[in-house]
Amino acid sequence: MLDSLVVLLRAAIFISVLQAAGVVLLLGLFRKNLTISKLSICSLGKRAAFISALTILVRYLIEPIRLTGSMTGIFDFSIHEFLITSGFGITQFSRALGVIILGISLLGHPNIREKTGLFGAILIVISFCFMGHTATSEQHWIISILLTVHVLLAAFWFGSLLPLHLISSLETAAIAGKLIENFSKVAIYTVPIILLAGLGMAILLLPSINSLRTTYGMLLLSKIIGFAALMCIAAFN
Description:
By secondary structure, this protein is mostly helical. The protein has helices spanning about 1-30, 40-70, 75-85, 85-105, 110-125, 135, 140-170, 175-205, 215-235. It is globular and about 60 Å long.
């Protein structure tokens, strides 16, 4: 039961943090081109940041219960001391701090929003480097750089989808058309780098071509096929 809940929470965290970071990145690039949709996009970012902070907190509190097998694990300070200094704890702290800074930035002046919001987004992106294969690999620094680029661009692309929908719905045709054209000019050069960075990590992490037959390899192939399908749709569009 707890394992299933953890899977759902991880999915919710990934979606919400990428959405929040994407909003800030989009506003940083195209804020001056927006008019009436700006408030709605900021509200979307604030909601995503709130959901992120809440789910990160719940995810952290579940871990002591999983480790001890009891609800009393939440009150075991030795468990918290262990978690806080672990890769898991550093990851959760970095993400939580990032979304809090990001959420606060969306409440402030646009000039403050761009600088502090970008800092929060960077903290969120970096948090992915403290756990999993990246943290344990011998090529930790190279893979961390590739992963940072991979997640940052993924956040920009994924997190821009809902804001672009709001822009298309709320802005005039002239403003929406111009902004989407500008977005496309950026995306056409940056989005393929997501694939290149991902392939670079795969080459460094997979010991041999036969590793593609493992569960990890099959998931990797599924991601590549899904990404290729999205690129075909984008090209057709």
